[in-house]
Amino acid sequence: MLDTPAAAVPTLSLADQARDPDAFAAALGGSFERFGFAIVADHGVPQPLIDHAWAQTEALFALPEDEKRRYHVSGGGGARGYTPFKTEIAKDARHVDLKEFWHVGRELAAGHRYAGEMAPNIWPDRPKGFRDTFIELFAAFDRAGDRLLSAIARHLGLAPDWFDPAVKDGNSVLRLLHYPPIPADAEGVRAGAHEDINLITLLLGAEEAGLELLDRATGQWLAVKPPQGAMVVNVGDMLQRLTNHVLPSTTHRVVNPPPERRGHSRYSMPFFLHPAPDFLIETLPQTITAENPNRYPEPITANGYLHQRLVEIGLIKA
Ligand SMILES: O=C(O)CCC(=O)C(=O)O
Ligand SMILES: [Fe+2]
């Protein structure tokens, strides 16, 4: 409506969950139903660890190009290690994204039953301490993710621990992203309009402007502006499918900066929270109604779904 002020994604405090889990679940669920996004402060990932991770991320991307490319697994779908600048392309986009990234996955014990679907990590020789930092950060994201999933479960009328078996040893990926400075004649954008594939995404680093969501209520792009240190959390396609679109996966993008910021890099860290590979994505019965009949009568495993989607974004061949 014309006379309503531009909406903004609310900032919630995860610390409120301990005091009143139902109220936090309602606030998170409400923000997701409206925007597909929420901003979450007091997420529990320690700030000194985050600061250290930023320093190491900058040092990693500052390595010589040929050194970084030693960690690129050609044909590996970018699942682990380095993916060079201008590789990933958003579905149906005309230009590749203006970004390079590094993927850290879950460390599995030797011979783990998911070892066939979840590739071992690749660790760079430099910067020193990289492996320890990101194993610790991965675990901290896991904990924050578990708390958010328990709120989502409450909101959906499920037991608060409903997601625990679904995500145990899950195929989550921590992506370290670098968007280099943008030359004046650059073609394309930092990240083209897309939806995330996974259950939920926990994103750090969106204080540097650029992230926008496509507001389904107005059809307009809306800037996502978290306060310093807060996490941006969004619903991915797997959760949208599981909830029969009650929780919508919202299109988002990262636009190029205005001229005065073009000379600066942007760094961000999304943690793509995935279920275990054999988790069956089957529409939750409580989300099926006469007005919202089951959109996905055929269930699919998380791994089958992921494979379909990685082909679409150019990271693996069919
Ligand atoms: O860099 C950002 O702020 C968002 C990145 C993103 O949407 C993604 O990698 O899926
Ligand atoms: Fe995304």
UniProtKB/TrEMBL annotation:
Pfam families: 2OG-FeII_Oxy (PF03171), DIOX_N (PF14226)
Transmembrane residue ranges: none
A molecular function (GO) term: 2-oxoglutarate oxygenase/decarboxylase (ethylene-forming) activity
Tagged with keyword Oxidoreductase: yes
Pathway(s) served: Alkene biosynthesis; ethylene biosynthesis via 2-oxoglutarate
Reactions performed catalytically: 2-oxoglutarate + O2 + 2 H(+) = ethene + 3 CO2 + H2O; L-arginine + 2-oxoglutarate + O2 = guanidine + L-glutamate 5-semialdehyde + succinate + CO2
The protein's name: 2-oxoglutarate-dependent ethylene/succinate-forming enzyme
Biological source species: Sphingomonas endophytica
